[in-house]
Design a protein that fits this description.
The chain contains 21 helices and 12 strands. The chain is α/β, with parallel strands linked by helices and 605 residues long. The chain has a domain at 100-336: ABC transporter transmembrane region fold. The strands form 3 sheets. It has a 6-stranded mixed β-sheet with strand order 6-9-10-3-11-12, with helices on both faces. The protein is elongated, with a radius of gyration of 37 Å. The two termini are 42 Å apart. The structure holds adenosine-5'-triphosphate.
Length: 605
Amino acid sequence: MANFRDILNYFRPYWGLSIFSIAATSVYEIIDLVVPYAIGQILNVLSHQPLDKPLTAAIATVANAINYPVNQLLSLGVLLGLIFLVTVVRAPTQPWLANWFHWDIALRARRDQHQKAIEKILTLPLEFYDENNPGRIAGRVARGVANHTWTYPEIAGQMIPKLFRVLGIFVFIWFVEWRIAILYLISFVVILGFTLRKLKRLVWHDNRLDKYSEGTESRTSEIISNIKTVKAFATEAKELERQKVRLERELTVVDYRIHKGYVRLNTWQRTVIQFCVFTILGLTLVETVAGRISLGHFIMTLTLSSMAYAELEPISVLAEIFARRYSSMVRFHEFLQEPSGVDAVGLLEKGQPDSVYQFTGKVEFSHVSFGYEPQRPVLQDINLLIEPYQTVALVGRSGSGKSTLVKLLLRYFEPNQGQILIDGQDIRTLDVGNYRRRLAIVHQEVDVFNGTILDNLKYGRPDVSFDQVEEACRIARLDEVIQHLPQGYYTVVGERGVRLSGGQRQRLGIARALIVEPDVLIFDEATSSLDYESERSIQLAMRSLQGTRTTIVIAHRLSTVREADQIVVLDQGKIIEVGNHEELLRHGGIYHRLHALQETGELLS
Ligand SMILES: Nc1ncnc2c1ncn2[C@@H]1O[C@H](COP(=O)(O)OP(=O)(O)OP(=O)(O)O)[C@@H](O)[C@H]1O
């Protein structure tokens, strides 16, 4: 569970600089107080009242140094000089010695933490993405990073220095009249204490709101990605209604709980502050009339305490803003604390050259058992030997564990029992990144990145020669598609480019996989969603690959796997039949039944 400490740690690399810049800003805030003090003393000079002892001594020193008599003119000159120093001379130094760093630190930390968030996105286990949609994740990262960035300059550059200023004012007043200082201190502690207590409650509501907002954003993002289904089922009105209800709920929390709470707090603060200013005015007046403080000190005390109370409002506004952002910042840290996948070790290190591993493609599953949840086994005691360059098909009912077997081979998950060997080596002992680079998978849904078709083809191997790209496209039968694109290989596809059909995307996926020259090539239901003609093209492409490398094909349509060297039939997480097409038909088991069903045109699952 993330907390305030994580927010502090966000800026950890910059703590030294942070302390320096906060201290510098605070010193400038305190130096400011010299102005009302000097004005008070000028009043004393003009009304012929005695000056403070340290000031009298300073004026005498100046008189000695310049050999000039101590008189009204010299006193005024020294006081004016003091004001000049703390206003005009100070002005050009403050932005560089203090203010600069507040944004500098915030922006550097933003870069670091955004990078951490991207690292987390890249290393989270796949199942995290099954449970959280992109809108939710992107929203959480964007809000978290933005709120940290805005909050730092406000807290380090304004709130903390302002608190020091308030403390400085207390010290000044203490030297003039300690009773007024005590009253001033008590009022501050009471106001700030009460404000913090109220804010705690409001943070709780803000946290609730943040969760609601994430839910709304997540649904909006789902509507966008599933818009075809929404339109097909004509559920626009229903979706709108559902989002309206969510937005209404958010408004209720914002308006009646949060906003009203802040306005109430503000009303209370203003009234108490004005009452305190008035009380201090009364008391200081009494002290002045009684002759216990000078006219200059009367003016100074009033000016300083008004300055201090004036600071209370921005301090509590800043605390309020911080409170509003607190939960989204904490939720950002909760995201960063999500455990990375078991496969994440070393994934972010720069890849070594492709030649680190080279396999013949002999794959062996030895007594492999696995379950996503311990109590529900998905694969049980799988034993399977795939010889180099063989084509092996995995078939079986939906949910029988075909994709899971491939996920284990890709090391997205680790078996609970048994081991998977490649060329006799346990894949757990290999560097995961370099190992995966020797495998390639073509999914049912091929991802297309925004960019040219050539960029997409070279995604896994940017240094590949153009001849190799062309060769891969020829095998995958993508060349015929590219010929008809307006700019050939340089046609922009993806989000802002030409839309590729399902079959065209599949061919792109196959060519992209071939370009990395994998030792093991996997097709995960690559033809399931295609029309007959596209399926035939892909099958021809797959056929021309047969015998060139180890190939694993997951298929629902048995026509795709007829020519495989081995067909492995899975049922409820167990291998129940192994053989080639003819052998399995002769065997008369599940494969035979599935085959008969498909021959009669019925669906498999
Ligand atoms: N991330 C996951 N978390 C929990 N259970 C999962 C997860 N992925 C799959 N399963 C479960 O594991 C079982 C096997 O799923 P798997 O996807 O391997 O089957 P499959 O044979 O590939 O099915 P299909 O042909 O429909 O793709 C199913 O019961 C499925 O619900």
